[in-house]
UniProtKB/TrEMBL annotation:
It comes from Colocasia esculenta. Belongs to the PC-esterase family. TBL subfamily. The lineage of its organism: Eukaryota, Viridiplantae, Streptophyta, Embryophyta, Tracheophyta. It is a single-pass type II membrane protein. Keywords: Golgi apparatus, Membrane, Signal, Signal-anchor, Transmembrane, Transmembrane helix. Residues 69-120 form the Trichome birefringence-like N-terminal domain. This is Trichome birefringence-like N-terminal domain-containing protein.
Amino acid sequence: MRGGKQLPLLPLLILILYLQTSLLASHRDVVALQVASGPEPAQQYWTEEKEDEVDVVQSHQGSPSLRGGCDMSVGEWIYDRSYPLYDASCPYLSAQVSCRRNGRPDHDYERWRWKPQHCSLPRFNALDFLGRMRRKRVVLVGDSIMRNQWESLVCMVEAVIPDEKKTVTTHGTSTSFHALVRTADLAKRVIDSRSFPALYAFFVVEQLDFETSIEFHWAPLLVELEAGGAQNKRILHLDSIEENAKHWRGADVLVFDSAHWWTHSGKWSSWDMYMENGRLFTDLNPMVAYEKGLFTWAKWVDMNLDPRRTQVIFRTVSPRHNRSNGWQCYRQRKPLFYLGHSHRSPVQLTVLREVLRKMSFPVYVQDITGMSALRRDGHPSIYARSGNGQEQLYPRVPASDCSHWCLPGVPDIWNEMLYSII
């Protein structure tokens, strides 16, 4: 600089563009498996495929995408040595899903990426994501599987942010990852990591801030659950949502899920009674209750959100591979070939689509159910731990966890899909 004048803007813009583009380019050693077709869903259960038949992975379930007419849920799993997208030592991973740390001996479950049949899924670029989410709130709302996805997204982003520029805060049922960094900070970090000549850093003079918040709010039923209500019972309020919704008001991107908790029964149930229109009752079909709860959520979205300012995504139910469902996940090391005798679409998905059909607000359905059903290899199984109080993050997990997902792993691909949507 001379005379207090700043350098021309053009070199800065060229540098920033180069830095972003360079992160996308990486040497890939990819092994693509051949494509094979499987029978259409016909039965209500999933059956296991022999492990020696696991050569190709393909899904035939899903719904048309709202982005360019491509159904991202139909495709194949490709083994790609350039994955995972972040290191398993990411400090934001809970013990419950840190399968490497917990002694899982195989690591190939981290190296599968998803290839849609009729379009491409862009590789996640943390700098580009932060740029597009500049001064925005991304809020993930749901159960422990959504917490799984939140941890994945935070780990996909945090590596490009200097330690002193990122924080995690927790307030009750909400946990937030905050990034407050300048373009100069990010550029210097990339330059240093690549041993670029110092000359390039000379041009990074603008103070462009990335103020991004990635938040998780615990609300597995979306509607309000009252502990110690009338008669000292746990009451599920099917027509009340504001106590939860106040946490995600003002968000720019909202990602929801709600499915598993509605089917819990007996000792696993989270409520004793329902309340609707001021009336208490105990007997109600779980899917009728689910529909009522979703309609309450849908009404809130329609009445309180502006599609010009807020994007809403509803992620479909994450499959379980428990023995009770005819599966097992222990010692599974490869994805399935295809869902040979796969179940029909989950009932929750049918209910969800019916509710969304009646909404005025455009909600994007991120269908991950079929593609994830192929990944029985991706669960923690016996390599799950919940010490240091983290059982609160992943409550009620059996000794062999075939519900949540190892990280790095399958939820990273959900987030690559999310990245292509927002």
